[in-house]
Write a structure and sequence with these properties.
The chain has 367 residues and is an alpha+beta fold. It has 13 helices and 15 strands. A hairpin with a 2-residue loop joins strand 10 and strand 11. Helix 10 packs parallel to helix 13. It binds pyridoxal-5'-phosphate.
Length: 367
């Protein structure tokens, strides 16, 4: 028996009839672009995030790009972000001519270290991007305070954290804007690509809505040069089927994570990412740190357990960003973690038996 890393098939077959009805409804009306399904989903998703507006877009990467632009990032500006994130956080800045500037992370939570922002901040810094990595909110209050004191907008990268909260506040509602991804494997995933920007600022919302649709204020009236970054109506219809299940799916992930935590409490060689007391995590990923990670991963694989590494190379050492001039040793915490992190199977359909099997194999491989 193989234990898969994620299980998209179970959810797909469970919801097949509802997806089918959503598909038939959209195709029956031939309403493919920015139709009522997009609007309905946007308003439901905005409420989930405690925001007045959500704007459906084509991916998490485009959500970041449009959020950066609407927050005022322009060519030559600098955007602060953790070194240990998925490359899209940085790519979105590069796509609009801005420069990603990396910041080290905390050794316990793996989230951006607020105390390191001051070293990275310059007069060109135009946005700060905390990433709620693995589904755990970053330590937002000191970040928001630092940013507010300097008049710099905060854009949350919430692509891994749908439904998580920090000190009772939903992710997506704390910065000037936030970006979400609906890539199929996310906690809330479409049946293809999709994303959203959330905000409580009507100016930002209007600008993102304009930019995602060719800068079009009226049919064929183009107020600005925009993009073709719309959320498909069909994907919005599928997302509307899944949205009411998000809370239960997140609860199932939390239960699985608590089970892993209990089992790893007795295994010295396995160090789960630490959870803060003042957040509710949604465990997009369940990540541990181990010595000899690659050998341990090999042992898991041989025992039928799939795993992942998020992410093996911090962005400052990634070939695509060589031109930024960073080197090994610049972000020691992120670099050490990159060599030790291992993501274990995590999804709402994981059974207690599977979790126990994973823990047993991992315990044997690390002792
Ligand atoms: C932290 C983070 N930011 C941005 C993205 C980009 O999202 P998408 O793949 O929908 O473009 C992802 C998704 O992979 C992500 O995990």
């Amino acid at each position: 028996m193989r234990i898969p890393f994620v299980d998209l098939k179970s959810q797909g077959s469970e919801l097949l009839e509802e997806f089918d009805a959503a598909f038939r409804s959209v195709v029956g009306r031939a309403a493919y672009t920015l139709g009522p399904e997009v609007e309905g989903f946007e308003s439901a998703f905005a409420s989930l995030c405690g925001c007045t507006r959500a704007i459906g877009v084509s991916s998490g990467t485009d959500a970041l790009k449009l959020a950066y632009l609407a927050a005022g990032v322009r060519p030559g500006d600098e955007v602060l972000m953790p070194a240990n994130t998925f490359i899209a956080t940085a790519e979105a800045a590069s796509h609009i001519g801005a420069k990603p500037v990396f910041v080290d992370c905390l050794a316990d939570t793996a989230n951006i270290d607020p105390a390191r922002l001051a070293d990275a901040c310059t007069e060109r810094t135009r946005a700060i991007v905390p990433v709620h990595l693995y589904g755990q909110p970053a330590d937002m209050d000191p970040i928001l305070e630092f940013a507010a004191a300097r008049g710099i907008p905060v854009v949350e990268d919430a692509c891994q954290a749908h439904g998580a909260t920090y000190r009772g506040r939903p992710v997506g509602s704390m910065g000037a804007a936030a970006a979400f991804s609906f890539y199929p494997g996310k906690n809330l995933g479409a049946l293809g690509d999709g994303g959203a920007v959330t905000t409580n600022d009507p100016r930002i919302a209007d600008e993102v809505a304009l930019l995602r649709n060719h800068g079009q204020s009226d049919k064929y009236t183009h107020a600005v040069i925009g993009y073709c970054d719309r959320l498909h109506n069909l994907q919005a219809a599928f997302l509307a089927v899944k949205l009411p299940r998000l809370a239960d799916a997140n609860a199932a992930r939390r239960a699985a994570a608590a089970h892993y935590d209990r089992l790893f409490a007795g295994i010295a060689g396995v160090e789960p990412i630490v959870g803060r007391d003042d957040v509710e995590r949604v465990f997009h990923l369940y990540v541990v740190q181990v010595e000899d990670r690659d050998a341990v991963r090999g042992a898991l694989d041989a025992a039928g357990v799939d795993s992942g590494i998020h992410y093996p190379v911090p962005l400052h050492l990634t070939p695509a960003y060589r031109s930024l001039g960073y080197g090994a040793g610049d972000f020691p915490v992120a670099e050490r973690m990159a060599g030790r992190i291992l993501s274990l199977p995590m999804h709402p359909y994981l059974t207690p038996d599977q979790i126990e099997h994973v823990a047993e194999v991992l315990g044997a491989a690390t002792s």
